[in-house]
Design brief:
The protein is mostly helical. It folds into 2 domains: 158 residues, no CATH class; 67 residues, no CATH class. Helix content is 66%, strand content 3%. The chain is built from 12 helices and 2 strands. A hairpin with a 2-residue loop joins strand 1 and strand 2. The radius of gyration is 25 Å and the shape is elongated.
Amino acid sequence: MNILNDVVSGAARQFGREFGRAGANSILKGANYYAVKNASDYSGRIKPSDSEVVKSIKEINKVKFVSTNKGNISRLIELTDLIISNLDFNGNQTLSEINEITELINQYNDKFNHGSALVEDDYKEKSVEYLEERRNEFIILMDKFNNDIKNHIEQNLEIAKKNKKSKKTALLLAIPLLGFQWAYLKSPGYTVLSIVLCWTIIVPVINLISLLKLLFMNENKFDQEFNPEYVYFSQFNIKN
């Protein structure tokens, strides 16, 4: 039985192309540390340490189909309810789990295709109508979820680009060896302290080391150290 299988498969592939296999770059914002997680272990029992997404993947893996149409429709509804419960966008927390969410969607899609193939095409019950309603709801939520992620990434990437530090500017500020680059890269307090103590030997040496470090640092390394938000949000492959 085909219950919007082609439509859902297309949505799953689109999501995977855009957000799957994101890098493991991290970002520090206040007290919250975000990192795109790499693949987890989806086998075995559900552990207290598992995220809700990983728990859902394991729940999907546990579902076994039976020999009756009614039983299989019931399991397909269970699977669809499970995937819908995970389509709630939660900012950077969702981005940190993007690889796991992609895996969840793929696992659901594969499992649903397998289970729906076991249901006879002429099987007509109220439960089938309900399943179709839930599948339609899943498609709508998937589209919204997809757009929420895109908008969040695009908006934050635009902000990160505007606030992006320039290596060239930092080098020019570092040349006098007075610590002007610290006001640009980190905090004005460092520059004030550097100027106050510029008569000592240690501070000019520290500023010289900083200048040399900036001079030999490539753009990627510079961005990772001084533009973490830009690096984080630019890792996602957004396609309109």
